[in-house]
Write a structure and sequence with these properties.
341 residues, 9 strands, BirA Bifunctional Protein, domain 2, seven-stranded mixed sheet, 19% strand, 2 domains, two-stranded antiparallel sheet, alpha+beta, binds phenylalanine
Length: 341
């Protein structure tokens, strides 16, 4: 014990008189006294030898010593900094460039769409890109050999044909419904895959945003109001909307929605193929079979769903004429969106 007192005394005077403004010496000081194998650690280990009745006193002594060393180290540090400030930093040097990245146009469009529906209380849900047959097809009222499976050219996983690359994010709707927490008001953004020839207008993967609303007494009128709101926010107050009857196995009734062409304002151009209308999404009332497949009582609950692509509106908004540009990672293309919103 006596020994420990003496040792620490000696160390205190040694440390107290140590001064430097050199960074490497300050670091050496830290390693010597405060490092993992430093003097303070060694003394702590030596504590084991101290007899039990002296432990408390010795512990106090060591803690004080440690604070003393730490305080001295911090002083040395400020010494270096103030020294640097005064002489070694050249304040006239130009600053470091701070490059700012840009968001991908598909992400920009996705965020834009999501933010509109978020204002109506829709939350975002995500799910896996590799799906089982049940979530991508079966639960969506597309049993094996259903002809409508051919509507979407599916990539199957060779090792296990029960697995597919999801052809739509409707699979995430199933996953949300299976959780059984109602009501559901959700958006499902994500990448989807279809075996199509790659060209300027189609690709084997692209992005979708689907929406799902399930509660008691949800009607087609709610669906229309929600989509009207979306279109006005997205394409402005003058945009016109029309619904055309359509077919999807998972919705009944089903519709496709067109907006008046926002390029030519309905006068007729190449984007709307002179029709004045651009198709933007598919939608409908969730089929009762889909609800029961997910354990939801179709007598009590009803809901609507819709799904739209992200690339096409992004192409129209940013004037991109080739779908392949989105996935080529060409920095010259991507940089053009640094200021875009
Ligand atoms: N899943 C459909 C598709 O990918 C889109 C859709 C979603 C249609 C929801 C109706 C309702 O084509």
């Amino acid at each position: 014990m006596e020994n420990l007192w003496q040792q620490i005394d000696a160390l205190r005077s040694e440390i107290g008189s140590f001064a430097t403004t050199r960074a490497d010496e300050v670091e050496a000081f830290r390693i010597k006294y405060l490092g993992t194998k430093g003097v303070v650690k060694q003394l702590m280990t030596a504590m084991k030898e101290v007899p039990v009745e002296k432990k408390k006193e010795a512990g106090q002594l060591l803690n004080d010593f440690k604070s003393f060393v730490t305080a001295h180290y911090e002083q040395l540090l400020t010494g270096i900094i103030s020294d640097k400030d005064a002489s070694t930093i050249d304040l006239s040097l130009p600053g470091q460039p701070f490059p700012i990245g840009s968001r991908h146009p598909v992400t920009l469009m996705k965020n834009r769409i999501i933010s509109i529906f978020q204002r109506l209380g829709f939350a975002v849900a995500e799910g896996p890109e590799i799906e089982d047959d049940w979530h991508n097809f079966g639960a969506l009222n597309l049993p094996a050999h259903h002809p409508a499976r051919d509507m979407q050219d599916t990539f199957y996983i060779q090792q296990n044909p029960d697995w597919v690359l999801r052809t739509h994010t409707s699979s995430v709707q199933i996953r949300e419904m299976e959780k059984g927490q109602l009501p559901i008001r959700m958006l499902m953004p994500g990448r989807v895959f279809r075996n199509e020839t790659v060209s300027a207008r189609s690709h084997c993967f692209f992005h979708q945003i689907e929406g799902l609303y399930i509660d008691e007494n949800v009607s087609f009128a709610d669906l229309k109001q929600t989509l009207y709101f979306f279109v006005k926010e997205m394409y402005g107050p003058n945009a016109q909307v029309r619904f055309r009857p359509s077919y999807f196995p998972f919705t009944e009734p089903s519709a496709e929605m067109d907006v008046s062409c926002f390029i030519c304002a309905g006068k007729g151009c190449t984007v709307c193929k002179r029709s004045g209308w651009v198709e933007i999404l598919g939608c409908g009332m969730v089929h009762p079979n889909v609800l029961s497949n997910c354990g939801i009582d179709p007598e009590k609950y009803s809901g609507f769903a819709f799904g739209m692509g992200v690339e096409r509106p992004a192409m129209l908004k940013y004037g991109v004429n080739d779908l392949r540009l989105f996935s080529e990672n060409d920095i010259r293309f991507l940089r053009q969106f640094a200021a875009a919103t």
